[in-house]
Here is the input.
Amino acid sequence: MQTAEGAERLKTAHRYLTFRLADAMYGIGILKVQEIIGLLPITQVPRVPAYVRGVINLRGRVIPVVDLRRRFGLHVAPDTERTCIVITQVEREQDLVTMGVIVEDVAEVVDIPTELVEDVPDFGAGITTEFLTGMGRVDDDVVLLLDIDAVLSAEEADLVGDLEETPDGQGEER
Here is the structure.
C-alpha cells in the first residue's frame, strides 16, 4: 500500500528511461521514447557526420540512427548483444522527427523526484553541456539527464530529419 508521502513524491517525480554509455548512466524522459529495439542492420549514408550511423528500416519506415557514444566524443566500443536502439521523438522547429539513438545497455525506467535532480555543474569554458537538463540521484548513482532535443544542433537535426522518410517512401516535405 502506498503512503501519502509516497504518492506525493510520485506526483513530483519525472520518469526516465535509463541506459549506459561508457561508464555513465544516462536518462531520457520517458515521454520522448517510442520504443526500444534490438540492433538492426544499419544502412550507411554517404556524407553524413561520423556519429550518424545511417538509417534502419523499421516496419517499412526509414529511421535515421545516431550513435550517442560518437556524438558525445566517447571511446567507440564494438556493439554487443546488449546494444540496442532507442526510438525517440525529437522536436525540430515545429516538427517531430523520429530518430533512433544507439545505446550500450538499457537499464530500467526510474522515477526521479524533482528534489533529487540537480543543475548541471559549470565545468568552465570550452566544456559543452547544453544537451543535459540535470543530474539525477538514484540510490548511490548519478544519472545524466539528456535533453534529447538538444543532442543535435539545429543544422544537425535538419540533416538527420532529412534522412527520415514517411511510410509511403516519399520522404517528408519540408
In short: The first strand starts at residue 13 and ends at 21. The chain is about 15% helix and 45% strand. The radius of gyration is 17 Å. Helices lie at 4-11, 68-71, 154-163.
